[in-house]
Design goal:
Blueprint (H helix, E strand, L loop, with lengths): L11 H17 L5 E5 L1 H8 L4 H5 L3 E6 L20 E6 L3 H16 L7 E6 L5 H9 L6 E6 L5 E4 L2 E3 L5 H7 L4 H17 L4 E5 L1 H16 L13 E6 L5 H4 L5 H8 L2 E2 L2 E4 L11 H4 L11 E4 L5 H6 L7 H21 L3 H35 L2 H14 L9 H8 L4 H14 L5 H15 L4 H9 L11 H7 L25 H10 L7 H6 L4 E5 L22 E8 L4 H11 L6 E7 L5 H7 L11 H7 L1
Parallel strand pairs: 1-2, 1-3, 3-4, 4-5, 7-15, 8-9, 9-14, 14-15
Antiparallel strand pairs: 6-7, 8-13, 10-11, 11-12
Helix pairs in contact: 4-5, 7-8, 10-14, 13-14, 15-17, 17-24, 21-23
Length: about 625
């Protein structure tokens, strides 16, 4: 079921198995038939951990989304054995959800009759004192038989990616000054070390990285007596604040997977696409003359992970390199089908039949990704997409960043979606270390007059996140030059540098990881001082009895690449993940990377997470699918 999680240097299927076991332990605390009431947000993440058939084996008879009103709990689905005995709420520690939980309990008690029900609640990932107090105020805390927690923090998204899928982590940390998400990060890292061994070297950049490091070291001191002597599978931990590199998530990703996320949004490794492109075409020419049947209306759900062999090959490529690869695969498939004509003997026919299942699966995958590529190309060929991309490239190259940009001015005049305008404005501000006062006043006045004065709060939120501000000392040109963030004449088909993921711009975050694994951060000490936040370097002693098995990051000895866990505090893009995979795959690569993050993001979702309001929101996946 999750064989694709085994293929990395660190076996993340083991992580998934532990998470499954912890979930089942929670359920098994409640003996008897069960109805599980899910917080909507958690159904997707937990679906990556356990399927319904597994839950049924542990007496889960019914499942409901968390909604106001009465739950239909009169009988079990089999109709045998009377009413449901246990109602289990699995929810995030959000105060507004407690009102719904209380309403469900009150109405279930009204209808209880002769069958007594027990109510249980498990908070994900941690219990909240405020939520417990709220349940007390609503008069239901005493009715709960169990008040527990299910410590689901990092979810295995693929063989080398773990995500907390916390939408609010960046906003909490950087806008509200709430360190709760950082505490959850530290707890998850303790769990990583419990399963895969102590990580000897810890590096970090940014204030959030410093806080996580301090919490991690303190937690380890508190639990030192219970540590198991496990040989470390991870050599190095690199913690990176998102505000160390604000530019990368604002730029439009140009990898295949990145563009899918930009245009349609990938949620828990699944994308929803317009069904018309996937409707089977009738191969009979006579049938094509007949009136077309009604096209399907339900969005096409497609799972995107490395279990799909073709997707694992093209996901991290620049989109310009996807078409040639699909064409090459089509020719290979065609040649394989032709083999059946040459199969004359029984053994040759048997050999062809043995390969037939794989060939058919490859054909379906090729058809799927050809359709997706066509959908993306329809978007990327549009003049509006190319104009926006050109403006972004100019900002990243430092061209005319200190004056009002004509393209942004036109976008505002045409009243284009505000999220698009804000994304471009933030890019210009970040690449110029802020706006000149007159330029900033002009932009702010134009936005408020065009889109409404209620967006003054939006601008203030972006200011607090340092995405839009009045100009300070110009450091970005020095950072760009020293770290070689911009490359000319990038080979998108056969790249030699990570800058291919943005067709000429190398993500600052990944450059830092690259320098750390190569010549070390001391070689870029001066430029590190220009990047905001503390620079962290700590060594963790291994438990007694364990010796250092191999050299650490930066050492010249050793014949196999080291393993580095890069944890992005505040979100990571698919383009950055692609760049780190590219580094892992190079010959003589000093390190292979496992990526962890609070959330996988794109520019739209990231900006939206900082603010509220329907005028800001990007189209949801269904609207986006229709508009293509």
């Amino acid at each position: 079921m999750a064989t694709h999680l085994v293929s990395g240097r660190v076996n993340l299927a083991f992580w998934r198995e532990v998470a499954r076991r912890e979930l089942l332990d929670c359920l098994d605390k409640c003996s008897g038939s069960k109805a599980v009431v899910w917080d909507d947000f958690l159904t997707g993440p937990i679906g990556l951990i356990a399927e319904y058939s597994l839950l049924k084996e542990h007496e889960v008879d019914k499942m409901f989304p968390l909604r106001m009103g009465r739950l239909p709990l009169t009988t079990t689905s089999s109709g045998v054995g009377g009413a449901i005995q246990n109602v289990i709420f699995i929810v995030r520690p959000k105060l507004d959800l407690m009102t719904i939980v209380a309403d469900n309990i009150h109405k279930a008690q009204e209808m209880q009759g002769r069958f007594r029900k027990e109510f249980h609640i498990f908070f994900v990932p941690r219990k909240s004192l405020l939520c417990e107090r709220k349940l007390t105020e609503l008069g239901v805390y005493g009715d709960l038989t169990t008040v527990g927690e299910y410590g689901l923090d990092l979810l295995p998204m693929d063989s080398d990616v773990l995500s907390m899928e916390s939408d609010s982590a960046f906003k909490e940390c950087y806008l509200q000054g709430d360190p709760t998400a950082l505490f959850h990060v530290a707890k998850s890292l303790m769990k990583v070390q419990a399963l895969y061994g102590i990580i000897p070297h810890v590096y970090g950049k940014g204030e959030a990285a410093r806080q996580v490091t301090e919490m991690l070291l303190r937690m380890r001191r508190e639990t030192a007596s219970t540590e198991r002597p496990i040989t470390p599978q991870i050599d190095c931990l690199l913690l990176l604040d998102r505000n160390v590199d604000l530019l990368t998530p604002l730029a439009t990703q140009l990898t295949y997977e990145g563009l899918i996320d930009e245009i349609y949004g990938i949620v828990n490794t699944t994308v929803k696409l317009p069904p018309e492109k996937f409707a089977k075409k009738d191969e009979d020419p006579k049938q094509q003359e007949k009136p077309a049947p009604d096209l399907p209306t339900e969005l096409k759900k497609i799972q995107l992970n490395s279990a799909d062999e073709l997707f694992s090959v093209i996901r991290d490529r620049n989109f310009h390199a996807v078409g040639p690869e699909l064409s090459r695969r089509a020719k290979i498939l065609s040649a394989q089908y032709e083999e059946r004509k040459d199969a004359k003997s029984v053994s040759a026919i048997r050999q062809f039949v043995s390969k037939l299942h794989h060939i058919q699966a490859a054909k379906m995958s090729l058809a799927t990704h050809t359709s997706i590529a066509e959908l993306i190309k329809e978007r990327t060929d549009k003049e509006s997409f190319m104009d926006s991309l050109q403006a972004q490239q100019e900002f990243m190259n430092g061209i005319d960043t200190d004056k009002v940009n004509a393209y942004i001015e036109d976008c505002i005049a045409r009243k284009e979606p505000l999220i698009k305008v804000l994304r471009l404005l933030c890019m210009q501000s970040v690449t110029n270390n802020g706006f000149k006062p007159k330029v900033y006043d002009f932009y702010r006045r134009e936005i408020l007059q065009t889109y409404g004065y209620d967006h003054l709060l939006t601008i203030q939120q972006l200011e607090r996140a340092h995405l839009m501000k009045v100009q300070e000392q110009k450091t970005f040109p020095t950072i760009r030059k020293t770290l070689k963030l911009v490359k000319e004449d990038v080979n998108e088909q056969n790249p030699t540098d990570i800058s291919y993921v943005y067709s000429g711009y190398a993500p600052l975050s990944v450059r830092l990881a690259q320098f750390l694994a190569g010549s070390g951060w001391r070689s870029i000490d001066e430029v590190l001082r220009l990047i905001p936040g503390s620079t962290i370097e700590e060594v963790q002693a291994l438990p007694p009895g364990l010796k250092k098995k191999r050299p650490m990051i930066g050492d010249s000895q050793g014949d196999s690449p080291k393993v580095t866990l890069v944890f992005f505090l505040g979100g990571v893009t698919y383009a950055e993940i692609a760049a780190l995979r590219f580094l892992s795959q190079q010959e003589d690569a000093p390190s292979e990377y496992v990526i962890a993050t609070t959330k996988i993001i794109n520019g739209h979702s990231w900006l939206k997470s900082m603010m509220d309001g329907p005028d800001i929101a990007p189209p949801d996946s269904s609207t986006a699918a229709r508009s293509s």
